UniProtKB/TrEMBL annotation:
<dbReference type="GO" id="GO:0032993">
    <property type="term" value="C:protein-DNA complex"/>
</dbReference>
<dbReference type="InterPro" id="IPR039420">
    <property type="entry name" value="WalR-like"/>
</dbReference>
<dbReference type="InterPro" id="IPR036388">
    <property type="entry name" value="WH-like_DNA-bd_sf"/>
</dbReference>
<dbReference type="InterPro" id="IPR001789">
    <property type="entry name" value="Sig_transdc_resp-reg_receiver"/>
</dbReference>
<feature type="modified residue" description="4-aspartylphosphate">
    <location>
        <position position="57"/>
    </location>
</feature>
<feature type="domain" description="HTH luxR-type">
    <location>
        <begin position="278"/>
        <end position="343"/>
    </location>
</feature>
<dbReference type="GO" id="GO:0005829">
    <property type="term" value="C:cytosol"/>
</dbReference>
<dbReference type="Pfam" id="PF00072">
    <property type="entry name" value="Response_reg"/>
</dbReference>
<dbReference type="InterPro" id="IPR016032">
    <property type="entry name" value="Sig_transdc_resp-reg_C-effctor"/>
</dbReference>
<dbReference type="GO" id="GO:0006355">
    <property type="term" value="P:regulation of DNA-templated transcription"/>
</dbReference>
<dbReference type="InterPro" id="IPR011006">
    <property type="entry name" value="CheY-like_superfamily"/>
</dbReference>
<keyword id="KW-0805">Transcription regulation</keyword>
<dbReference type="GO" id="GO:0000976">
    <property type="term" value="F:transcription cis-regulatory region binding"/>
</dbReference>
<dbReference type="GO" id="GO:0000156">
    <property type="term" value="F:phosphorelay response regulator activity"/>
</dbReference>
<keyword id="KW-0238">DNA-binding</keyword>
<dbReference type="Pfam" id="PF00196">
    <property type="entry name" value="GerE"/>
</dbReference>
<keyword id="KW-0597">Phosphoprotein</keyword>
Length: 351
């Protein structure tokens, strides 16, 4: 976790005296602080900054705290895992419920207890650290599983995996394609795979796929980890295929036989529903979050999940924000790919 002197806390509070007191307390604790007097000023300042945590008043003139939170969740997906703590003089249960449904992570009641405020901030920053570490460990495990396969005959083990897996060398050419990926490519309605590389049939999907491959190849050459998620559309269907592109950094210069990028393909409808109990254990999800995650991984559309579970899209959006936070992702494509990639590294037995 960052040291306090490198953590940026963003404070949004219209009462100047209280805002100044909060800023002073945070600075004395060693935090960097940005402060805004209202929601619009906060948006202007946030356009050029990425805070580690936000403290925000609910009742403000113009753009209130709920509206600010909603805008940030929609327009700044990279802040999905950034804790958002409301400052409020309202302690009615309805206010707390509304805030939670809006995606708030916690509440501090006015008048502010500054010891409690600092303890709350420290607790949420520790939680973010745990989430990031778990996500990094999961991705490292996935990359490590295939980083040394080439040339040793171990590629055959990939045929036992239900995910489609394509390994690319430093030029983006295919090193290995497992059986599941071959079966997907044989349909030829959404993806082509050859010794020269991988292409999507849909032009827009292909543009996104090639961008993701180029990004992860650059990262692998630089010895840096990188993950990019892409959703490919089928030519004649509304369903899609999620692809997770993972850079495989190497300490030594890569050769033509060494994989630099792994593509994990998960076609909608081709895999069994991910067991909810497994999702709960892997990602620390609640039963409801696991149900939503499993449904998302199967249908890929939030509207379909809402209809399947008999809840509103607002409820699904609320759970998706929690899923982004707990899995360390910030886009639906990345979320779905990670959900499928983690637990589906082995086939689910037929019932």
């Amino acid at each position: 976790m960052k040291g306090a002197d490198s953590v940026l806390i963003f404070v949004v509070e219209d009462e100047q005296a209280l805002r100044n007191d909060i800023v002073e307390e945070l600075q004395e604790a060693g935090y960097h602080v940005l402060a805004a007097a209202d929601g619009q000023q906060a948006l202007d300042l946030l356009a050029d900054s990425t805070p580690d945590l936000l403290l925000c008043d609910i009742t403000m003139p113009g753009l209130d705290g709920y509206e600010l939170l909603n805008i940030l969740r929609q327009q700044r997906p990279e802040l999905a895992a950034t804790p958002f703590v409301f400052l409020t003089a309202l302690s009615e249960p309805r206010e707390v419920i509304d805030g939670k449904l809006s995606g708030a992570d916690d509440y501090l009641i006015k008048p502010v207890d500054y010891d409690l405020m600092l303890a709350t901030i420290e607790a949420h920053l520790r939680q973010v650290k745990r989430i990031c570490r778990r996500h990094d460990d999961e991705m490292t495990t996935l990359r490590g599983a295939i980083s040394g396969l080439s040339g040793g005959g171990a590629e055959h083990a990939l045929d036992l995996i239900s995910l489609g897996i394509v390994l690319l060398d430093e030029q983006g050419k295919q090193v290995h394609i497992n059986r599941a990926a071959q079966e997907m490519a044989a349909d030829a309605d959404f993806i082509h795979v050859s010794t020269k590389g991988v292409w999507a049939v849909d032009p827009l999907s292909n543009r996104a796929l090639q961008h993701a491959i180029a990004e992860t190849l650059d990262s692998a050459r630089a010895g840096v980890e990188k993950v990019a998620g892409v959703m490919l559309q089928h030519a004649h269907e509304t369903s899609g295929t999620s692809i997770l592109a993972c850079a495989i950094p190497r300490a030594d210069p890569p050769s033509s036989s060494h994989p630099c990028v792994a593509l994990f393909l998960s076609a909608s409808g081709r895999l069994k529903r991910v067991p909810e109990a497994l999702l709960m254990e892997l990602f620390g999800l609640t039963p409801t979050e696991a149900k939503v995650a499993g449904a998302l991984a199967s249908s890929a559309r939030a509207t379909d999940v809402a209809a399947e579970l008999g809840v509103s899209q607002t409820t699904i959006s609320f759970h998706m924000r929690n899923l982004f936070q707990k899995t360390g992702t910030n886009r639906q494509a990345d979320l779905i790919a990670l959900i499928l990639a983690g637990p589906m590294m082995c086939r689910v037995p037929d019932e």
